[in-house]
Design a protein that fits this description.
2 copies of one chain form a homodimer. The first copy, chain A, has 376 residues and is an alpha/beta fold. The first copy, chain A, contains 14 helices and 12 strands. Chain A binds a DNA duplex (16 and 16 nucleotides) through helix 2 and helix 4.
DNA sequence: TTGAAAGCGCTAACAT
DNA sequence: ATGTTAGCGCTTTCAA
């Protein structure tokens, strides 16, 4: 009985060290790629690692390094439907028939309207894609969280404070979302998708929405449309406001100061309702700009039901260039928002910040582009 | 200089203990809700916790409990497009023009076709929703991972072995996915969405696909359709096979042994292609069963383009009851797959297993139901 | 270049 | 019912 032959759980540094005949410290150095280790020893350690099937224990490592290599991806306020907000007073809600919303949901099920709605918009899938694509090569993975109630927000902050993740990527399309402030007040690193409505000392990526709307307006105008209307996004959201402002501005400059509009909520259904109203009030319109693709799709449906051909009778331009744009018949001419690239940049900003190389607050604004397809 | 006045980082158990005038152990008990603590002391500890702003450190806790309270949600093989598979030989790939796929992608961007495709199908959003809804009330959050290459699979296994997550929820729609076996071989807890194609000692949830297809067939038949065709899913995937088998079987029993079919890949585009072919070969068909909603939507588009009215000339039934079904014009009659409920059940099975109460391999099969809307 | 040793913050025996 | 103590597995000074 010289030494215990079989370690209990999975192999530890200690086991590898013993197998390689070196100290724990040396194994640690090799595993972490620290220089100043004799190549010969390096090799034997590597062999021992392979032989023992060693995997570093994350908790132990985190405990000392104070890093988890995990980051939280928080969806805070639905892009598709900002009505899923609980108690936190604040933003005016543009008239909309949001489903009743109770924070406490029974298990599983189609329960929470918020989480369900979130992925109904192709937008979030694209954000996830961009984030994952950036993180994955770096051995990191996002923890998915939702923060639509104040309770959920507290949980997100607690989660970060516990050191369960090193920082947060926050997609917050709701106007008066208190989460960004909560996070920064707690001194936690975070980066936002979209400019915060209240100025906050926090980095973010965003799109030049106004430029995008201008592109749409110019295209419709160049096409010869003269009776143009717009379906706006929710006007309590910066993206909704900016897209309208940019569109209206360009139209005004082009000599059409009066712009019929109907407010939507970035959902297909709201686009249908808005289009129906617009059509009832302005049966002669020949062009529509919808502030996102989902609403544009809804508009196309309604137009066809009312006997209008797209684009012959009415030209339709969307916004986002989401999967809905190509799925539509005719495929949508739309303003491209490079969501995946923006999401990746958001991740990059956070990682830079975590690496300490960049403590400054930065914002990166992306330029939209027009994608011409069949609808206009 | 009686005692150091200001602890360095965030407060620890020690700090709280000092503030409350008790030992670390007692604070730990209060924090973890262990009974046998004097209510009076409990109260003073709680006060001290609040006063210090204490948050338990997850890494330290994990190190001793050997649990992380994190679970991995792994997407392994795209439901929408199983072609995004790298090197792992095995499954026959039904003829399809998959994009070239290189595991190593440049940063961010629309890069990885796999991750991008995954969320193009509303299915995955529903899985996430169901999982999150179950986990959240339990203070847990899913870590999102993709495993479409053997390298990515190894990373998933390594991640779990490191103890970064307590177990995995695997959504694997690709036929010969080696991941389930890799995970169980490593002795790691996991639960699958959909039966593994190779029998594996692993719990899973699934749908009675054949019953669903039967529902679709019966509805079409009852409607009076007599020249019925089907757009199948990829036939190297159990769900694709089973839906076809169930449909064909019911049709045969009803006296229609010959069933025109075209294989799709669960994407809208493949549904369009399939429908066009079916229509060319059988211009007189009056009913179509598509093995998922996305393909049904594509079929509707093509039918309309060919001058067929839905449902008057051709009735269309989809499968899944995804958001695409209600977004479609006319809205799709479809077979409902309760994805959210199934995903929640999957999470429940995993948590039960982790709690040790249930070490047995279980499978839970859900029953589909018919949702009648406008298309059939 | 390598090893020894301290300690990250917590939980869980064990002792009281 | 509460306190004492021993680690969990790792990184990282500090010495050698």
């Amino acid at each position: 009985m010289t030494e215990d032959p079989r370690p209990a759980g999975s192999p530890t540094l200690e086991d590898v060290a013993r197998a390689a005949g070196v100290s724990r410290a040396t194994v640690s150095r090799v595993v972490n790629g620290v220089r100043n280790v004799d190549p010969v020893i390096q090799e034997s350690v590597r062999k021992a690692v392979a032989a023992t099937g060693y995997t570093p224990n994350r908790a132990a490592r985190s405990l000392v390094t104070r890093r988890t290599d995990a980051i939280a991806l928080v969806v805070s306020g639905a892009g598709a439907d900002p009505t899923a907000e609980g108690e936190t007073g604040g933003g005016h809600r543009a008239g909309s028939a949001g489903a009743a919303h109770e924070p406490e949901e029974p298990d599983g099920g189609a329960g929470s309207s918020f989480t369900a709605q979130v992925f109904a918009d192709p937008f979030f899938g694209r954000v996830v894609t961009g984030v994952v694509n950036y993180l994955r090569p770096r051995g990191m993975y996002p923890v998915l969280m939702f923060a639509e109630t104040s309770r959920a927000r507290d949980e997100v902050v607690a989660y970060l404070r516990q050191g369960s993740a090193d920082g947060a990527l926050v997609v917050s399309t709701h106007a008066d979302d208190p989460l960004p402030a909560l996070i920064t007040d707690a001194g936690l690193p975070a980066v936002l998708y979209a400019r915060p409505s209240r100025p906050t000392r926090i980095s973010y990526v965003d799109l030049a929405h106004q430029d995008g709307a201008r592109l749409a307006a110019e295209h419709l105008l160049a096409r010869g449309c003269r009776r143009i209307a717009t379906i706006t996004g929710p006007l309590d959201v910066p993206a909704g406001q900016d897209r309208l402002a940019g569109f209206r501005d360009t139209m005004a400059r082009a000599g059409q100061p009066y712009l019929p509009l109907a407010e939507g909520r970035f959902t297909q259904e709201s686009g249908e309702t808005a289009m129906a109203r617009l059509l009832a009030e302005h049966p002669d319109l020949d062009g529509v700009f919808a502030a996102n693709d989902l609403m544009a799709v809804g508009a196309c449906h309604v137009l066809r039901e009312h006997g209008r051909r797209v684009p012959e009778d009415v030209a339709v331009v969307g916004f986002d260039d989401s999967s809905a744009a190509v799925a539509c018949r005719p495929p949508l001419t739309t303003v491209r928002q490079p969501v995946e690239e923006m999401a990746a940049e958001m991740a990059r900003l956070l990682l830079d910040r975590l690496a300490g190389s960049d403590r400054a607050v930065t914002s990166v604004i992306f330029e939209p582009s027009l994608v011409v397809r069949g609808s206009a």
